[in-house]
Amino acid sequence: MYDLIIVGGGVVAFSAAIYAGRYHMKTLVLGDSIGGTLMLTTEIENYPGIESISGMELFDKVKEHAKKYKDYIESKQEKVEGIKKTGEFFKVQTNDGTYEAKSLIIATGTKWRKLKVPGEKEFTGNGVHYCATCDGFIYNDKVVAVVGGSDSAAKEALLLTSYAKKVYIIYRKENIRAEPITVKRVKENSKIEIINNTNITEIIGEKIVKKVIFDKEYNGSKEFNIDGLFIDIGHIPLSNIASEIGVKTNDKKEIITDKNSNTNVEGVFAAGDVTDSNFKQVITGVGQGVTAINSAYQYLQK
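RE: above sequence
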């Protein structure tokens, strides 16, 4: 029987585990993907005290820090398949075993949102990608496009300029909504061109992607030739496991929490991108994780 099981394998989960260790709470971290989506972030420049660091490096530092509390913390790379509440306790079923705990923290994060157009599924991995850090190197001296207008999408485009000879940002609205410093870098990069007020309706190719179809003409045609397409249009919260035990979510499927990271189910707390927080950053997720630990500790004291 654990005092706490943290469901999730990213930086929020392991940051929370550090504080669980400091509180001497017997804790198990369960995640099918150790490191989470942060591992695919090329550069983080807004984490206090660290001017610039890759997502992988930051996660490795947090995970290494957590090892200091190995007398209290365990971690297993297993997929959580179900959670049940039995009396005051929780039973967590994974692909490899069953574990019991007095409290839970859900820090499962998100997964990439799909474009949901013809050709996306067929060409995933063959011209359609979701991570420039992982696959950008394939497109040395090629023409690529990024779909999306967020800060993340703009940073993907900037990274791709290290490989591609031309990078297009395709966005359905007038102006991309990246941070001002990122917008400045995009505008100053001669390799990047923004195609605004435009949607992709189809992805076409043979064995690999050859072109996309727009919903309106660009330079006299709706057909647009590219070698690769990177999709960055947001994320979907991985909250289904929590919903199974009655944890409430909003219309976006984000877990509803209060300022102390409590959910509506007693003994269940949530932190990070899976929650209904408005501002989703590494630092805010880590803060939520620490808050969740304090709340879990107070709950166990009762």
